[in-house]
Amino acid sequence: MSQNPPDLRPDLARARVTESARPGQPTIGMVSLGCPKALVDSERILTRLRAEGYGISSDYGGADAVIVNTCGFLDSAKAESLDAIGEALNENGRVIVTGCLGAEPEYITGAHPKVLAVTGPHQYEQVLDAVHAAVPPDPDPFIDLLPASGVSLTPRHFSYLKISEGCNHACKFCVIPDMRGKLSSRPHRAVLREAEKLVEAGVQELLVISQDTSAYGTDWKDRETKFPLLDLARDLGELGAWVRMHYVYPYPYVRELIPLMADGKVLPYLDIPFQHAHPDTLRRMARPAAASRTLDEIAAWRAICPDITLRSTFIVGYPGETEAEFQTLLDWMDEAQLDRVGCFQYENVAGARANALPDHVPEEVKAERWARFMEKAQAISEAKLEAKLGQIMDVIVDDVDEDGVATCRTKADAPEIDGNLFIDEGAGHLQAGQIVTVEVDESGEYDLWGRLV
Questions:
Q1: Span(s) in the chain for CATH 3.40.50.880
Q2: Binding residue per annotation — 343?
Q3: Quick one: angle between helices 291-304 and 323-336, nearest 10?
Q4: What is the pTM of this model?
Q5: Measured CA distances, 84 to 71, 147, 253, 306 (Å)
Q6: Binding residue per annotation — 71?
Q7: pLDDT tens-digit profile of 306-328?
Q8: Fewest 10 Å CB contacts: which of 159, 199, 246, 287?
Q9: Angstrom distance (rounded) from CA 361 to CA 347
């Protein structure tokens, strides 16, 4: 029986290369750390470089230089970024650093003074300038043709679609607005055209991402509608691909998205960063502190679309979190019955206002609360998946291994962060990107198994 690997890494990607470099072609490697939003930045950088005649290498040895797109959100992520930079320096020696940690260039050069250049997040032109300086372009206009879909760091059947940059929230534990600035939404037409090109190139699933998807377009002074995300979702829903919404803050108007899910235009899936449930904890986070109204909203969403899947992430051990506050979170989980849940133990982040809060929770208490939280989340997940036994559903094939076992996802599962549905028999003829119909015949804590029907 195949199982979902426990160590999946959605935050570590390298370029997927489908062609060989021509003789003498300058080549660039890429390591992309962090969230899917950074992954989109990496794809844009590589697409620009490919258009300028650079080859893309999937390993250090075949590259004239390596770009490391870093994450700087948590101290542990910073340490991992420094490790990745060090590995690239050891294996290649010519390294250009970009991404969120690039907002702290002295931090990087203090640890790795031999890097060629450091640029901050979404500074595409500066990254290109650094590459040009390190490895001058040498394009051949008759050979170096850019594929219509650009360079992808994901399998060709799904793609992340970033609709905005930055964030207007001021959460005390987060420094993203300092790194990436205030909300800046892409034009509706630009997003839709990118989505159309992706679908034309064979993408079957569009994963809509931003720092605050619900706020899309609210930074436009002359917008025609109050909430432009609704119009964008309707238009994306007409393209014939699965459309999955990530990072949706639970503003009241989100209820207007749910009929699109009930009608099959958008996947019945919402990824919502609730973070906590106790009002005092939420206030210390500088987050909306209306957990009870959130439960009302969840009930309203489910009334409109009973099949909706709700995913969220939470922080335990936030400064000042008492045992009573944590217990409120557990009780809230019992009521909310979320389908997919992730949890992080609080970490200080350099520059975050939460660092100065009193009553930091001891590490051993954080770990104990994390274990209790995940035990409850796992039990809820297991019960919800068991309830799917016997159901007929469509799934998308992500991979078929050499033994003929197909790794698939249901509409309730985002790539790499949620569960899988495995087909152990009769799946050898399937191909990645196919959407097939299965009957669920076995369930586990996070994954399902099924047979083709």
A1: 12-134
A2: no
A3: 10
A4: 0.79
A5: 11, 29, 41, 43
A6: yes
A7: 999 999 999 999 999 999 999 99
A8: 199
A9: 10
